Amino acid sequence: MGSRSVLGQTVIALALGSVLIAGGSVLTSGPRQPEPALAAGHHGKKKRKSHPTITIPGRPKPKEEWYRHCPPWGHGGDAEVDLLKNRIDRATHPHTFSAEQFLRLPWPSGVTRKKLLMADWSRGERRKAFRYEGMPASLVGYLVAFDRLGPRESCNCGGKAGYDWHLWIGKSYKSSRKASIITEAPPRIRAREHGFDWKVFATIAGKARKVRVTGWVFLDNDHKVTESDRSTLWEIHPITRLDVWGKHGWKKVAG
């Protein structure tokens, strides 16, 4: 084949969006576009590697995954906040708090109920919050109340990925919800860890049995402490383990 003929085919091929290579093979039609990197998530789901992230100085970086087609940063909310809610790593080497100690933790009042993204908090607000935010912790108290039908939240893509279980931990098993600490077990954790059986949790609630919930300290600034179900904006969220005190010491129930 003459050089003029080869040149003509090349020009035609480029005009049609194809590229001729040695041996007559054809690569992709049209200009190649870079594709986002993908990695396997829970149950074989796919997730994009390029997505919002959050790093808290001195704290473990959250491990994340897609779940039921819901990204770890959720949908329609604050991506950084939802990444913390949806972390799936176990809270190892936790700091232990009693319910009394946890209730005394301070938080930056300037971020309460503000429609501010975490990224927009002031340097002082972030410094005060990050003293505890993202800390692996165990909370010792009593399971005052349990609710497995939480509201639709952006972290769960409006309920598409399920609902968070809410556990209220108090200083006494007779404590009210208002005087207790909210802790939450998200669907991602319940799918990964053993023992998250709502019937078992329900039998413990309201009983004079000391419990220990282990997970990650989280500031839920989308609330006010004047609400009827909380006395602090600090939570253990997510929970990765639950233990109950018995005759032979702590016994793991979930996690």
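[next item in queue]
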Amino acid sequence: MRSAFDGVQVEPQAMRDLYLCQALGRLTAAKAVRAILISGGLKVLTLTSENFSEGDYLGQDHALSEIFGFGCKGGNLSPQLAWQGAPPGTHSFALTCFDPDAPTGSGFWHWVVVNIPVGVASLPLGAGDPASGKMAAGALEVRTDFGKPGYGGPCPPPGSVHRYVFTLHAVGLPQLPVNADTSAAIVGFQLHFNTLQKASLTGLFRR
């Protein structure tokens, strides 16, 4: 019987190899299972950026701008993002950016985009600015914890390092039943039940 890992069905031998890699401390779970699946010729959803790699610090260009009033003076540019390997049955994509380390008790949603057409495979630098015209046609930016749609960059309280998790969801519906004022929690609820596979890329920021 196959086991599921991150929405992907994995053969028992592959899972044993995965657990061995973890036990030996050679690979993270995500990297191990992706290596196993790719070596077996299976398509695996991946998310990359020209602006940062997994575990890198995000630059000031991506930090929150001064107009938000949180004390940061960044460029508030959403990073360039690209993806490949969508599973069969994908009819759209959704993209989120979440800070699980925010001192709110429930994290902080920095960016929520849904209904990205299935033919789109990347978003350019700055696409998260609703006034830029760079967002993919047909995609919908949804209200973040800043209170409005669009990308809001990192600006944590001074001190500890925060993680900013960009997650791409391969969605089984062409459109989710949400609108621009839907809360991120409700979007997350819809994604939980309609995501076929997902991939994440984590950037760091410290102030």
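[queue empty]
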